[in-house]
TrEMBL record:
Database matches in Pfam families: EthD (PF07110)
The protein's name in its UniProt record: EthD family reductase
All copies of domain EthD, residue ranges: 12-83
Top-level division of the source organism's lineage: Bacteria
InterPro entries: Dimeric_a/b-barrel, EthD_dom
Lineage: Bacteria, Bacillati, Actinomycetota, Actinomycetes, Pseudonocardiales
Length: 106
């Protein structure tokens, strides 16, 4: 799998719960149609492990078959619609692309 990982923080005037509800609901509906999307995992951050990790509300990992499929999705009208949906929300994010390798499974 090839992943797009997004770490995001809510806008300053939203609660954590509002942001997670929006992300997993309204925003998810706009994101599901991404071409080539194979899986989407979302984590609602409940706490930071250490002070330097504070300030984040959620982590999404969107998975595609390979880098070409991920880049095609990012060039699509569906991605443009998802970006428009976020609009001028004023939250912050970190967006990363990379190849997934399973390192352990119980």
């Amino acid at each position: 799998m090839f992943n797009l990982a997004l770490l995001a923080a809510r806008p300053p005037d939203w609660t954590h719960e509002q942001f997670i509800t929006w992300w997993r609901g309204e925003h998810a509906e706009v994101t599901y149609p991404l071409p080539g999307l194979r899986a989407w995992r979302h984590t609602a951050v409940s706490s930071a492990l250490e002070p330097r990790s504070e300030g984040w509300d959620g982590l999404s990992v969107l998975s595609f078959d390979d880098e070409a499929a991920a880049r095609a999705a990012l060039a699509s009208d569906e991605w443009a619609a998802a970006v428009r949906h976020v609009g001028a929300m004023r939250g912050k994010r970190i967006a990363l692309l990379g190849d997934e390798r399973e390192m352990f499974r119980a």
